[in-house]
Amino acid sequence: MAMGEEAAATVTAAATLSAPHLLIICNPSQGNINPMLRLGKRLAAKGLLVTFSSTADVGAKITASSGVEDGGDGVPLGLGRIRFEFLDDHFDGKEELKFNDLMTHLETAGPPAFAKLLRRQEEAGRPVACVVVNPFIPWAMDVAQAAGIPYAVLWVQSCAVFSLYYHHVHGLLDLPAEDDLDARVKLPGLPALSVTDVPSFLLPSNPYCFKLFTEAILRQFRAIHRPSWVFVNSFSELERDVVDALQSVSPRPPLLIPVGPLVELEEEAAVRGDMMKPADECVGWLDTQAPRSVVYASLGSMAVLSAEELAEMAHGLASTGRPFLWVVRPDNSALLPEGYLNSIAGRGMVVPWSPQDLVLAHPSTACYLTHCGWNSTLETLAAGVPVAAFPMWGDQCTDAKYLVEERKMGVRVRAPLRRDAVRDALENVVAGPDAGAMLDNARAWSVVARTAVAPGGSSDRHIQAFVDEFLSVSSSR
Fold it and tell me: E.C. number, please (predicted)?
């Protein structure tokens, strides 16, 4: 870099670091990190200084896998800059905590660590002017409010699921008995839902291991009127009926601001938040496959299959006779059937983590066997890939209902998991009598989703409007 260019870059970086500072604090899970970081990158690109934060354990994993720096000035992105600085919460991840133990740890260690992080920004000359939190760490709202800092919430699930939780918290949702499969739940702006279509966290059968997780969500909804802004990872064209219907509910919820789909954009991909290094060979392997020939299978970062379920899925994928790419968590890979990896050599690839955005966008990918987590749902919508839906818990149940029955871009793999059901579902999605219609529907939604986040699209306008308001308020202060 020439001397003049270096000086100009220094001046530009200094100007960015003096821009209004927004800090994002995120629950320590990959499914929350992805949309929160992607929102941060889009806000930074509009001219803000953005700091992304989570627990020390998350910081160590992202630093190792994605090469980001903990502390420091960060990196330029669009008109702004994004940096990383993680909590000193006295948990380094060396001893793996069960989910409820982690939630309990954060309830105790999170608030003082977050307050300390905010003070560090003040002392460093970049005071935080706004905080963005997500629904699973409601204590972060209390810390921001105590510090006198306005804050926003990013709801990382669908507007439909937001409506179900909101109605439940305010006593407006009557759920039928879990064994009454013919009964239907009806709410404004939503299709009729069976009890198996509502988030499983609202049902009596919700297992103990999710109790604290569920309580964190409900605690957020009891305080949902406190944030200055409520963002949602969706887009207007996808869920307009739900957003409009919510405004007639009493008590009236805050206006949802769609800013999604928060999928990875090409111009932002250099800054990633992977807690596990993706298998780089995935894309090269896909390059060797025929167009629309590969089955991609991934059940997310939290799902744990039993040895029997894993074997059924393994044999189901192999029995299709199609090439497949399967993401199997490292703690599950030891449960694969003996000799399985050798038996699929040359036509199947099993990896611990994948660059999912690149895999779904690849022309060789024909369909996606998915758990229907909301991030994955939006990624497959944006990519235009039809699905075989296998939801297990939480909002996945509602997302699958919409993907299959409302968007008509896939089929269900019915539980309990059996190899024949896996094979038949995949065959129906790729080559069945309705496969062409499902692909057309998926591709149509891809155009709408991509348009929403493109310059001037509905979600891009919402983000710009927030940034303009934020800059105006910060300037007046």
Answer: 2.4.1.-
Whether residue 18 has pLDDT greater than 80 = no
Strands 80-84 and 75-77: antiparallel
Q: What is the pLDDT of residue 96?
A: 58
Q: Considering only 7-11, 16-20, 76-80, 466-470, which range has the smallest mean pLDDT?
A: 7-11
Please state the rounded mean pLDDT for residues 390-398: 94
Could you tell me the residue ranges of all domains in the chain?
11-271+454-476, 281-432
Mean pLDDT throughout 447-456? Answer: 97
Q: Inform me whether the pLDDT recorded for 102 exceeds 80.
A: no
Whether the domain at 11-271+454-476 and the domain at 281-432 fall into the same CATH topology: yes
Tell whether the model's pLDDT for residue 320 goes beyond 70.
yes
CATH topology of domain 11-271+454-476: Rossmann fold (3.40.50)
Q: Which long-range contacts (CB under 8 A, 24 or more apart) does 191-200 make?
A: 191/401, 191/402, 191/405, 191/406, 193/398, 193/401, 196/397, 197/397, 197/398, 197/400, 197/401, 198/164, 198/397, 198/398, 199/161, 199/164, 199/165, 199/394, 199/395, 199/397, 199/398, 200/393, 200/394, 200/397
pLDDT for residue 97: 57
pLDDT single digits (tens) 211-235: 888 888 898 899 899 999 999 999 9
Q: How many CB atoms lie within 10 A of CB 410?
A: 28
Residue 468, pLDDT > 90, answer yes
pLDDT band at 209 (very low <50, low <70, confident <90, very high): confident
CATH, domain range 281-432: 3.40.50.2000
pTM above 0.90, yes or no: yes
